[in-house]
Amino acid sequence: MSQISHIIVKVNQQKLYCCDDQEKVLLEFPVSTSSLGIGNQNGSFKTPLGEHSIAQKIGADCAINEVFVGRVPQGVLEVLQAENKPLPEDIITSRILWLQGMEPGVNIGEGIDSYQRYIYIHGTAEEEKIGTPASHGCVRMRNQDVIDLFNRVDEGCRVTIQE
Questions:
Q1: Alpha carbon of 66 to those of 10, 74, 158: distances in Å?
Q2: How many Cα atoms are found within 13 Å in the side-chain-facing hemisphere of 126?
Q3: Dihedrals phi, psi of 127, to nearest 5 degrees
């Protein structure tokens, strides 16, 4: 069992904090949340606030910079680029922590459901934008950082996204 029991994402700081049971900060990482701000509506491309949990961890044995499309590994980014493979606009890399909302009417339910909106904590091909709002709604991390986080947390870990 991991000693990280709670992740706090602070949108106004563009930071992710890993805390223990006593809410003591154990680790801190820079992140990138939505370039369009905060919000919970399906199709808004905004980062949802509130209490979440890690519903699913995806990519445990994948290489750093592995590209995921529909949560399925496609190959390493550099190889795909060298082969001129078509890539999505928002490239998801290395690891995925798929979030599910815990608050009915806030991030669970028709039109506002974080899980159905595919809200993740994930690696990105745009690491240079980490620390500034640049995502399409998810919480982006540097690839090495998301792998480190992935290895330290369990499914079910609480994730709070705050303004």
A1: 27, 7, 26
A2: 18
A3: -60, -25
Q: Which residues pair with 100 in a beta bridge?
A: 53
Domains for the chain: give ranges and CATH numbers: 6-162 (2.40.440.10)
pLDDT, one tens digit per residue, over 41-68 is 999 999 999 999 999 999 999 999 999 9
Residue 1: pLDDT over 70: no
E strand or H helix at 142: none
Give the Cα separation of 138 and 126 in Å (integer): 13
Question: DSSP states of 17-82 as a string?
Answer: EEE-TT--EEEEEE-B-BTT-B---TTS--BPPEEEEEEEEE-TTPPTTEEEETTEEEEEHHHHHH
- Residues counted in the chain: 163
Which residue type is seen at 105?
Answer: G
Q: Evaluate whether 31 touches 9 at the Cβ level (below 8 Å).
A: yes
Q: Are 5 and 15 in contact (CB under 8 A)?
A: no
Over residues 8-25, the mean pLDDT reads 97
The conformation of residue 132, written as its DSSP 8-state character, comes to S
Give the H or E element holding residue 149: helix 143-152
